[in-house]
Amino acid sequence: MLELIKNTKIDFMGKKKIAFIFSGIISIIGIIAIIQIATGKANLGIDFAGGTAIQLKFEKPVVLHDVRKALEDGGLKDFDLQDLPTVNKILIRVKNTEQKLGQTSSEATGILSRKFSDNKYVVDSTTEIGPKVGGKLRADAAKAIGVAVLGILAYVAFRFKFNFGVGATIATFHDVLAVLSVFYLMGHEINLILVTALLTIAGYSLTDTVVVFDRIRENMKVRHKEPLESIMNASINEVLSRTIITSLTVLLTSVALFFFGGEVIHDFALAMIMGVVIGTYSSIFIASPTVLLWGRKKTFARRP
Model-level pTM? Predict the structure, then answer.
């Protein structure tokens, strides 16, 4: 197997206090982001805030920038665009209130009819989501993430021990909060695509953490006379090369999607890039130290 680095002896556990302080700060920001999302004060997509999505098919190719400028000049606000250039289609997503529901579509199409009179279009579809439906989708998304995290706790607790389950769950929840906090601070839109990315990140982070836990469990059986902190350090170092290679592989794929995947999956790819970096960090600096602090020496008296 390819190894980027060999025989490292890095004291990861000795840096747990610094890691906990850093992770504590971004987790607090992530919790603030969740509160802002729940109260509707964050930059929510129309999936969660309500709004209108209009898909238009033009006769000839149309430049996305020209459509954006036309809508802005026409007075339309709080919208974003996605294009499908191979089929001359444009997707317009406009956030609005319940009072304006039904008016946005005619307003946007009216502006584009005047601006692109030499390039006719047809309305492929119009979808309107009211604020109440958006609120329900928001609640459903929160439940999906909560159930996923609880499932992780149950799976790892069953496969290892309860304190390992706590470590994996905290590390996974930390990753979700960290990505959410960055999106919130950057003012990026919170939508269903981001929720999909968060659930994918949770799965990736768990896989990485389980690999480290597996090596710790193996070493605890053969090096049980050594201090647990020493065993954890040795285990993380032993799988460090594998962790880096796996993370780099997923990272390169995510970067390729970010630059060449198009605007539709731009935020998904960005979240994945952040998730891979943060997930790798948490599997090393958060998961195992949490197990150590949660379990204490008494818990580890029996082998897992």
Answer: 0.78
